[in-house]
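Lay summary

Proteins are chains of building blocks that fold into shapes. Our project writes down both the chain and a compact code for its shape. Here are two examples, one after the other.
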Amino acid sequence: MDPVCGMQVDQTRTPHHADYHGSRHFFCSDGCRRRFSAHPQRYLAPQGADVEPVAEGTLFTCPMDPQIVQEGPGSCPICGMALEPMMPSLDESESPELVDFRRRFWWSLPLSVATMGLAMLAMTPLLEDLSPTLRVWLEAALATPVVLWAGWPFLQRWAQSIANRSPNMWTLIGTGVLAAYGYSAVATIAPSLFPPSFREHGRVGVYFEAAAMIVSLTLLGQLLELRARARTSAAIRSLLALAPTTARRINADGSEEDIVLSQVRAGDRLRVRPGEKIPVDGRVLEGRSTLDESMLTGESLPITRSIGDPVIGATLNGTGALLIQAERVGDDGTLAQIVQLVAQAQRSRAPMQRMADTVAYWFVLAVLMVALLTLLGWGLFGPAPSWTHGVLNAVAVLIIACPCALGLATPMTIMVATGRAAQQGVLFRDAEAIEALRTVDTLVVDKTGTLTEGRPAFHGVVTAAGFDADSVLRLAASLDQGSEHPLAAALVAEARRRGLGLQPVDGFDSITGQGVAGTVDQHALLLGTTSLMEEHGVTVDTMAAEADALRREGASVMYLAIENQLAGALAVADPIKPTTAEAIAALQRGGMRIIMASGDGVLTARAVAQRLGLDEVHGETRPADKAALVQRLQQEGRVVAMAGDGINDAPALAAAQVGIAMGTGTDVAMSSAQVTLVKGDLRGILRARQLSRLSVRNMRQNLGFALAYNGLGIPIAAGLLVPWGISLSPMLAALAMSLSSVSVITNALRLRNQGLGVQ
């Protein structure tokens, strides 16, 4: 039986297995095997054991109150939300809270709609034959499971907010729901307690529909928030998935075996075959190969590694075989450190919607105080029956102060703004990014894939005396037809673009880390580095000045020799995106300080920066260096945005106030960032900043509308204008509450029609 999913597995047929503590376990799929390897204890607990389904010692924290940290799952003592693991695992199962709330929402929605329908149709001839008493009991029957079952988590948080003396939105929601439902329940069960003046059309009004709809709408809002929170851990899961699950260890007796990655120890000798990932950080003992390190370093070109050179875990080996010695394993590895940086930066973020929470805190206290004063004022000094009037007016205050409009003020704007931004190729991940982007004054940008295309392209050719450019390019491209190297692809693509006829290659040989050799049109050719030329006695000094000039332009240079005679030099570079210069200039005109931080060499980075008019450049920066740069700028009082596209940018994207990922980059970068530019066009930042300003203004307007309705309605509901013949029944209070929500939604929808032209 598969210990992860419980399926029956034929161990003679399945290729998926793992060894743990001397026992071999079999799995139905590689996904189950990976989950088991990450946390074996989780799936090997005895049947019926009363244990939590998490690894021992796992720490959990609250997404809204990150100072809350405890071992094992639970609820936040401040806000009542379910705690989440501080470090997500590869197990991508949904949050139990998300599953629970989704179930409660879909069960409650039909009941809430039916309750609302009964209440509305009661005022029409359609239900004139239905007994009012029966209708009210039907509403009670429909609303009761919604309030007491679907809304139970909210009522628990309401009670917790009171017990912990930390008033928040749950205090308002719980008070509003209980006030509307409790008043209606008493009016249904014991209507005789109310004087005749409370009756309308011979019955006491009930507000079951208001209580039920509040619960359903709140559940919907929580579903949207939980899904957004779940995406924040996707970056870490993507990083964890980069690491290979096994390594091939060479034992002391010379035998080789595949072991689980967690069993690798510093000093172990590991075999890395062509096309495999480097299992851990280490150093090359034997062999020579090119490694694709772009996923971690941002370097767009493969890096040659030979004896004595360091290698990074999770990077991809090319065509050569390597024997490496493990040096940094487990939490000491580069990938593990990047994971830790991303997780730490994500936890350090302030809770979203801080402004709404601050307003809600004082609003709750004010509403509760007004309701209490209303009850006491009418009860002690009002006309008979004074306490009944006091209860009724206090309930009206709580109903009109129900936080629907206040709760919708920010989310409605965010929903409309994110949809509007998506039409412009900008994806916002959360409300915090929309609020923060307008205040950004410093932009840190990666080079490869952000300012540039992220893939090599032909840059130029320099020829020796007696050779022409097209002939040199044609021969080099013909030779490179047999190579899968990105530089070779750039030469072949340029030759085909020019319509140069490529010749077949005889005796093709790929010389790892140096270049290629072969025969084209009966000429022996060499194409590659300076060291390759020197090994074959080809002098390149006559072209050194031209080659250095090309390198200063950010290009990689290859020499072509024909019959051991230098024929020319070909340059391949990562071209700057056509829209980059325009975007950089516009951002600088807007007062933005722009700093380049690239994993490429200093010479290459400076060459690109000079062409774009950037004065501040940091080359050869590793992931931790970029994150440290962002943090240093923040300590100087700058509001920092980071724009990047690679896994190496993930820690800095998470550490910045606003992380901006290129949609043409890696999934990890997009998961770590709060903003994604779908087309990888930096001009999207200009549109996003403008939308940020419009959205924040809209949110403030919505909060103003919500508070204005409450500010005008609460005194009327409290009965202050009764001497002038103006009063507000709970029914009218519910209507006013609905109107405030309508005004907020209408105002938020205006964002759909506001232009976002590049300035």
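And here is the second example, written the same way.
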Amino acid sequence: MLKLTAQSLQDRKAWEAAGVKLPGFDYAAMCAHTKEHPVWVHFGAGNIFRGFIARLQQELLNSGKAKSGVIAADTFDFGIIDQIYAPHDNLTMLVSLKPDGSTDKEIVASIAEGIKADGADEKQMARLNELFTNPELQMASFTITEKGYALTDLAGNFFPVVQEDMKNGPDHARHAMSIVTALMLRRYQAGGYPFALCSMDNCSHNGQKLQDSVLTVAEAWQKNGFVDEGFVAYLKDASKVSFPWSMIDKITPRPSEIVEKQLAAAGIEDMAPVVTAKNTFIAPFVNAEVPQYLVVEDRFPNGRPPLEEAGVYFTDRDTVNNTERMKVTTCLNPLHTALAVYGCLLGYTSIAAEMQDADLKKLVERIGYDEGMPVVVDPKILSPMDFIHEVIDQRLPNPFIPDAPQRIATDTSQKLPIRFGETIKSYLARPDLDVQDLVCIPLALAGWCRYLLGVDDKCEPMQVSSDPMLADLQKMLAGVKVGEPASVGSALQPILSNPALFAVDLYEAGLGGKVEGMFKELIAGPGAVRTTLQKYVNA
């Protein structure tokens, strides 16, 4: 049996006999070189990093265009480092899932070190401080999810942990953004070395979110006497510290039992997923689709690895923004969210299976082609129509991508302003378009409100995925009963009027009443979700 460890990499023939591609470089030498000459730290040690971003550096290492690997740090779930990284010497088994059912297997060995970015762990923080005070370090990238940058709740109040960080200062940082700001303080104190903080998260204006959060923490510390004006000026000096924007796209769903069994049949052991104390479901392997895109604003004041050699698009901010808007507001993300909420309500556990449902397929086609395309921005480097065709015709229907609507439905409140709100705003801004013509986008929003009730279309209890605003939203809807449309009353008004959720007040936009009406139809009784869906997608 084969084990995913550094020592086992020596047995090349056995791995190759199992159909696994091995790294084309000396893993031990790479780790040693990275320790002496660190170039890249990445925050967020999950699947998109292991199955995509780390794989980019592996290409450079394989071709001799890089000698240092990536240092992974996790700010949220330290169990990932202890239970996945450490037992497997930071190696990952990447399984690429093709539409014909075949797979490619490769060991990703570009991660030189795994660190817990835990403010309470002096040893781990000392290592991060050592890295950030090294003038050779060029960049830190992030895949910590959109909520990882959030400092405030729905009402705009700082989270308690953020308040504590602001009060207690950089030596006692706990929130991810506070920890990163504290590390940048060490870099500033060590010599003010240039650096890039590059968000690669799947959210709009990701670099701006990161920059705003870091500056908010830094300015609070300055106000409270923990840092000087020079530190804040350092963070604001684009020639010293940059916050490049990016657009990322690759589906890396939760580990598939089918893939786990295939790996075991190939003689590879210890591939079973674990569930961490923070409830992360993660395995030593990453199963992922083949298509992938990463577009990055080329602003790196201390240099960067030549990732364009691995297929990354480096360009200007406007092009990144247009590419990201194309994907996040039209060609992929809103389709995903619509499938997620309706898939959960209709009892689906597979996105691919949903695409075989004529009503759901028509829902996403209408959201994408009919309602989104009139306001999509063409980024020029990628064709919007080619992109959305690939999504609807190849990527979402791929039966070998074990992605679930329940996973996609996570943190939906954080996603709605961009995925749907931006399109609504574009309609309002265009004199040649009428926002009242939108049908399936309001239907998606009504479906999300219906989903929050935690009752499926059979009127049976349904698990609602985690969301930072879930408790508040469900409290607002506490009096609403499926089967009793009159119970809605004014319950939806504080939700639909909140620009933090939809980027606009839906009533002021002229859509609040439409969404309310659809919601009442969706809660009419058993089967009402299906009936309402059919009514509007065929309208």
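What can we say about the second shape? The first strand starts at residue 20 and ends at 21.
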